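Posting for a labmate who doesn't have an account.
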Amino acid sequence: MTTPNPAAQDRIPVTVVGLGPMGAALADALLAHGHPTTVWNRSPHRAEPLVTRGARRADTITEAVAASPLVVVCLKDYEAMYAVLDPAADALSGRLVVNHSSGTPEEARAAASWADGHSVGYLDGAIMVPVPAVGRPDAVLLYSGPEPLFTAHRAALESLGGATYLGADPSLAVLYNTALLGMMYASLNGFLHAAALVGTAGVSVESFAGIALDWFLPSVIGTILRSEVPQIDARTYPGDAGSMEMNLTALDHIVRTSAEQGVDVDFPAALRTLAERAIAEGYAANNYSVMIEVFRKQRAAVS
């Protein structure tokens, strides 16, 4: 497909497919940046608020995709994307689809192949911010796929927020998304379990957050991780400042304290089990970052 001049992208027509809360926010951001915006949703009434703000509602999906060189998709998953776009595949030929639907890396690669088979440009995207943040310059949106397509449409994509290009592999955006969400849930569980633990002494979550979130998370955890990143990339894990055996002792104390205070032990017990596995695999003298080697082996075991 042809790629337009990036300098002409400031006000290109864009079609948004899928008007759930996130899709509607994407359309709103495009309108705010002056893009002629066509919208389509299975339930047409969802388009009404956007139409009042200047969007054009398409009656059919074929009409919607034919209206713009750039088609932004925000649906539940890849299966929903195929269900919506397959009937309009001929009309999509020569256009760019930017898919923000949720899924897996394998599904992203399959979607890129599907697009290629229909002569459709394809970028996979991941929105890493909540709905209210869409359209702000500090919002983080991730993209992967052919770099010339990203470069040619970057100005339009930056109407949605800060557009970060990850690479040519179309699976990278959804892979980053999944990895970061996994980190988010682990961090949320860590904070919530910790808050429940100190809460047994009558400490409010607000009081605990002053130490846990304002100081401990950025100044201790963030500093430790940042300092150890080069060692992790080098796959060296010196344990002179704290071995896995020392960490296992700390994890055991967390489990025992949770039990004593009447707080659920499953979360810290799972962490203790992982540390025990690392030691059993020969990493007793290494620091805690050696856990990445345990996770890498687990990946190989299930692939």
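Reply:
Got it, the structure tokens are right above this. The first strand starts at residue 14 and ends at 17.
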